[in-house]
Amino acid sequence: MTKLLIIGAGLLGSSLAHMAREDMQTSFTYNFHSAEIEGCRSYRCDIFDCPELIFSLRPDYVVLTATLTDVDKCESDRKSTWQINALGPKRVASACHKASSKLIYVSTDYVFDGKKGNYSESDATSPVNYYAESKLAGEHYVQEACPDSLILRPSVLYGWNPTRLNFATWIISELSQGRMINVLTDQYNSPTYASDMAGIILRLKDETGLFHASGRERINRYSFALKIAETFDLDSSLIRSVTSDALSWKARRPQDSSLNVSKLSRIVSPMNVSEGLKHMVSEKETR
Fold first, then answer.
1. Residue 92: which of 56, 150, 138 has the closest Cα?
2. CA–CA gap between residue 87 and residue 220 (Å, rounded)
3. Cβ atoms 106, 64 nearer than 8 A
4. Nearest Cα residue to 225 out of 212, 213, 237
């Protein structure tokens, strides 16, 4: 049976493990939050210890989802950020090359400066914060060490995750408790339903190069929040529209990092927001 190792059991990693376990011998790593998924083997493993695990398991595919994603924390703790987001992928890529394992690396839409949006794979990257700089460096290290690797860029991953809130589950949590929230009208992305991206990974696993693997819809955070409220029958009047100058962020964010998925769509059609949220409702009913 084909062997799959997923490095990082967060939102995307756990979604992928659940989807792949029927057809692949699936293992995954976790670090801070213990995780068990029926039908999968789990290993507590720091990203820097993963090369030893790769040499031991000799997986056919390695999917690297583990990353430090707190953008403001990345700005203030640059040493840890570079270690995890840049040097970590470099070590994993080197191990994959030596073990003849196909590496699939999950990057980010934040590698762009956000000045125009609808970015294609051929557009020039220009990070505006240290998180994005470190992730872009990770891309370069992976390409250098594993020329046959696959690099995927999602945007605003969302879905059910028992250990950590994401944008969608934060909206659901806050509105369910009757709390007023501020949401941006001037930040645009291409929200990516985690289970949909897990399916995209499995469909693209034998491809090489770079793909934008986000949802296919460009939308601002405020409109996305309204759709979440409508889908889950929550009070949208609790959502206040604000602009980014009202927030005191430590790190800059790209204003429009939406992604063009034309290349991806020639192989598989990613979900739009309404489709993703509809599937999220269905997942909730089966949990």
1. 138
2. 32
3. yes
4. 237
The pair of structure tokens assigned to 120 is: 């294609």
Q: Which of 182, 200, 202 is nearest to 192 (CA)?
A: 200
Q: What is the pLDDT along the chain (287 residues), one digit of tens a residue?
A: 999 999 999 999 999 999 999 999 999 999 887 789 999 999 999 999 999 999 999 999 999 999 999 999 999 999 999 999 999 999 999 999 999 999 999 999 999 999 999 999 999 999 999 999 999 999 999 999 999 999 999 999 999 997 899 999 999 999 999 999 999 999 999 999 999 999 999 999 999 999 999 999 999 999 999 999 999 999 999 999 999 988 888 999 999 999 999 999 999 999 999 999 999 999 876 65
Secondary structure of the chain in HEC code, one letter for each residue: CCEEEEECCCHHHHHHHHHHCCCCEEEEEECCCCCCCCCCEEEECCHHHHHHHHHHHCCCEEEECCCCCCHHHHHHCHHHHHHHHHHHHHHHHHHHHHHCCEEEEECCHHHCCCCCCCECCCCCCCCCCHHHHHHHHHHHHHHHHCCCCEEEECCCEECCCCCCCCHHHHHHHHHHCCCCEEEECCCEECCEEHHHHHHHHHHHCCCCEEEECCCCCCEEHHHHHHHHHHHCCCCHHHEEEECHHHCCCCCCCCCECCECCHHHHCCCCCCCHHHHHHHHHHHHHHC
Strand 219-220, strand 188-189: pairing: antiparallel
